[in-house]
DNA sequence: CGCAGAAGTAAGTCATCACTAACATGGCTC
DNA sequence: GAGCCATGTTAGTGATGACTTACTTCTGCG
């Protein structure tokens, strides 16, 4: 009697790619580009490492695929949040939506790791392009002044740091950390009010 | 006749450590924690790699030494900038000083890499502690409200991203990138005015 | 059925990396 | 000038990394 060999249906290359990207995002978010091994990603995806390379070519291509996926998620979130909202409330709505998006810390951490990986020219090119795309999108949807958009992104950036440092873990003992988390709670509260139908 | 053997004076362990830290900061800034090899740092420092390990014990300890050094630099810059300045101008003065500090991009990039390396618990602990220290310092020296301090750091954070993406390299073709660099120029200009003796 | 093409793997290559053990040497003191 | 310690090196080690070659197995289709 040899190994049980459960009859697992094969998946299409496209399905596999999506699975792998989902898993790789988690790994890259935690370990960064250089701190993540394709071997670990393949193992968790339940495939051999050579097959991963067949599907993506190089580790860098895998990273870029993850980056595109994250970009799409954020872009989609912004567009959805702005949909049907009066122009002057768009920035606020997008801010709230971004915070929701960040509930899974991976989104945040991956962003951070993308910036950190920018010494690689190809990665930098992609990150620049996506970032620029978001900046233009936010400006267009909100009609806000450049400096408002700038402030919007500065806040987002600080949220990323908040997540990297996992400040919520020390907010009960460090006053400043609690203070750092407050803007986040504020926006959520404002959003809650909106969800309840008020104003 | 064998190799010329230039009579190089030996340096004290302390001197070596300082040299190595200086060089390692550049490497970590570009490659991040995982993307930097102790071998490369040792080579550039002109010593053997085992000796580097004798001086620092582990790669992580080397990184932490670099991080402490960067923290001291920033802290010193803030304190110097605030010295003798009326309280209500302290935030502005520190902002300008920070920008000066960032003229060498390594300072910025190293910060970014520190956040990215925070999945390591020991590094995270150190980064948290130093960051908290700066937040408290800024609050104390400026007497500003927490939300002002928060905004101050948010701006700093966005500067870090600006440096990572090297936006100045595309500012001439991408309008938004130029716009992103403007706040930076603004603060410098304000500072220039101050230096000229006016107001 | 048969077979072509897609899905998937076992085994290996070669480079690199963090870190070690053991040894060599310069310079200061007495 | 002898001895000693801090400063340094050479030569490894075992693990891991990205990536390849060559091969197998499943599955849909005529």
Can you walk me through this structure?
- The structure is a homodimer of 199-residue chains.
- With 199 residues, chain A is mainly α.
- Chain A is 73% helix and 0% strand.
- Chain A has helices spanning 13-31, 38-45, 49-56, 59-82, 90-101, 105-116, 121-142, 146-164, 175-195.
- In chain A, helix 1 crosses helix 4 and helix 5 packs parallel to helix 8.
- The N and C termini of chain A lie far apart (69 Å).
- The model of chain A is unreliable at 1-6 and 195-199 (pLDDT under 50).
- Chain A binds a DNA duplex (30 and 30 nucleotides) through residues 9-13, 16, 37-39, 47-51, 53-54, 58-59.
Set down the secondary structure blueprint.
2 copies of one chain form a homodimer.
Chain A: H1 13-31, H2 38-45, H3 49-56, H4 59-82, H5 90-101, H6 105-116, H7 121-142, H8 146-164, H9 175-195
Helix pairs in contact in A: 1-2, 1-4, 1-6, 4-5, 4-7, 5-8, 5-9, 6-8
The structure holds a DNA duplex (30 and 30 nucleotides).
Oligomeric description of these chains: homodimer
Major sheet description of chain A? none
Q: Mind telling me the C-alpha Rg of chain A?
A: 20 Å
Share of helical residues of chain A = over 70%
**Class from helix and strand fractions of chain A:** mainly alpha
Straight-line N-to-C gap of chain A? 69 Å
Strand content of chain A: under 5%
> If you average the pLDDT of chain A, what whole number results?
89
The biggest chain-chain interface is: A-B, 45 and 45 residues
Total E-strand runs of chain A: 0
- Our count of helices of chain A gives 9
